[in-house]
Design a protein that fits this description.
alpha+beta, Glutaredoxin, 4-stranded mixed β-sheet, two-stranded antiparallel ribbon, 15 helices, binds glutathione
């Protein structure tokens, strides 16, 4: 029997974990292939133009890059058991938590992979080497991983992970783990017994890095065993099963996490939007560089500098478009939630320059 989809990625990759969990939940006819040097050279670079994973290939020879686009492409083809809740509150929460997993939890994920490398060196470097060269000996994989992981290792300062911010990143992550652990003592997934796009956003950081690399995995198992069980559920789901909570309910156990998201991440995203708009005003019709210099951010009460990731606007726009399409009782219900979690003001932003992705490039353009 031919395979409908191939996902090129790796067990160690943040975003491959997100797409993989989704494809398993949908019960698709698919396979995963390691993004070896050969795959980068013959498939990823020619079709995507940049060395990035994961990439989805269809049996018809279509290629999709970016987990959000991969998921939406597959959702259209396989709509049964949609991972987008129908209720306006739940849908907003799911989209915001996808944004949080994709763009904010990258800090603890990269910190607990690279700042503690001395305690998990052979595992982490060996995994990089195993993805590029699965047939090499472990010893050779470690030395290959030493080279191929350099761009990732070298990026942590730009992500805001420095001696000054590390204690606050650790504090914020410990608090998040505890809050999520409380949530998962009551619920199977974020919004009931069915995983939503929010669950798939969170599994990115919480599997490959924080739930698999030895140091943070031990921490999760010890401090947040219910979160660890959720990671296992996400990786071996009962396909197409479960329901979202009735009555568009947002569990109170998610509120503290959403409050942190609104307080810490949304100011960062709003500043990205300003920077993107200024760039587009100066460069009409241009493709916004992926990184636009550095800006301040605050986590765990401490302020640092991190890269301005232009892409964050595109992710946030998904939540914003949903919110700004609401009216009547739906809007009233969502506004009540936004006031509770401190996100109301941020969601009133008017975009001077909405952005979109263009096939064949990673840089965003004006819509
Ligand atoms: N937003 C993208 C990001 C993909 C991504 O950042 N992949 C990492 C590995 S997990 C990578 O290949 N990064 C290289 C790069 O960003 O150039 C997605 O959802 O797929």
């Amino acid at each position: 029997m031919s395979i409908d989809y191939t996902l090129y990625g790796g067990e160690l990759s943040y975003f491959t974990g997100k797409a993989r969990a989704y494809m398993r939940y949908k019960g698709l006819n698919w396979q995963e292939q390691s993004a070896t040097r050969e795959v980068y050279k013959t498939i990823i670079l020619p079709h995507i133009g940049s060395p990035i994973v994961p990439v989805l290939e269809t049996v018809d020879g279509d290629y999709v890059q970016d987990t959000t686009d991969i998921i939406d492409f597959l959702e259209q083809r396989h709509p049964t058991a949609s991972i987008y809740p129908g209720g306006p509150r739940q849908k907003l929460v799911a989209l915001l938590l996808e944004l949080y997993g994709d763009e904010w939890l990258v800090m603890p994920a990269m910190h607990y992979r690279w700042s503690v490398l001395d305690q998990q060196r052979d595992f982490v470097l060996g995994e990089f080497g195993a993805m590029s060269a699965p047939d090499e000996s472990r010893e050779n994989q470690i030395s290959i991983g030493e080279k191929t992981s350099r761009p990732f290792r070298g990026s942590i300062g730009a992500l805001g992970i420095t001696d000054e911010t590390i204690p606050s990143i650790e504090r914020a992550y410990a608090e998040f783990l505890m809050q999520l652990n409380t949530h998962f003592t009551h619920y199977e997934f974020l919004l009931g017994s069915r995983p939503s796009i929010g669950d798939f956003g969170l599994i990115g950081p919480l599997y490959a890095h924080l739930g698999r690399d030895p140091v943070p995995k031990a921490m999760m198992q010890e401090q947040a065993p219910e979160v660890y069980s959720w990671v296992e559920r996400m990786n071996s789901p009962q396909p197409l099963s479960g329901e979202f909570l009735a009555g568009d309910e947002v569990p109170v156990t998610l509120l503290p996490i959403l409050e942190t998201l609104c307080r810490e991440q949304l100011p960062d995203v709003l500043n990205v939007i300003e920077k993107n708009a200024a760039w587009l005003t100066d460069n009409p019709g241009g493709s916004i560089p992926r990184y636009l210099g550095m800006h301040s951010f605050t986590t765990g009460g401490v302020t640092g500098q991190r890269v301005i990731h232009s892409y964050s606007q595109w992710m946030f726009q998904r939540a914003l478009d949903h919110y700004q399409s609401l009216s009547g009782a739906d809007k009233v219900g969502v506004d009540e939630l936004l006031h509770t979690i401190g996100g109301y003001e941020s969601m009133q932003v008017k975009l001077r320059h909405p952005v979109q992705r263009k096939k064949g490039q990673l840089e965003l353009v004006a819509k």
